[in-house]
Amino acid sequence: MGKRDSWVAYMNPIAMARTRGPIQSSGPTWEEVKAQLEKKKKGSKALAEFEEKMNENWKKELEKHREKLLSGSESSSKKRQRKKKEKKKSGRYR
């Protein structure tokens, strides 16, 4: 009798799942997904205005940077030439 005390009946997992019935889907319905996509496409007016303002600011920054580079390119090329001359002079005495 001692052996039968620890005995456990085998439960078929597939049969157990069938007895529970069909699985309930926990995800959103197709209509809910469509509504969410529509909201994303529309966006908000505040966000659109913010993006436009940022684009304008970015364009202004780019223009300033370009002007600096164009005006500073002459002086930077002179600096490069000076450095090259200094290197040549220091190399002669070695």
From TrEMBL:
Residues 62-94 are annotated as: Disordered. Residues 78-94 have a biased composition (Basic residues). Coiled coil: none annotated. Belongs to the FAM133 family. This is Family with sequence similarity 133 member B.
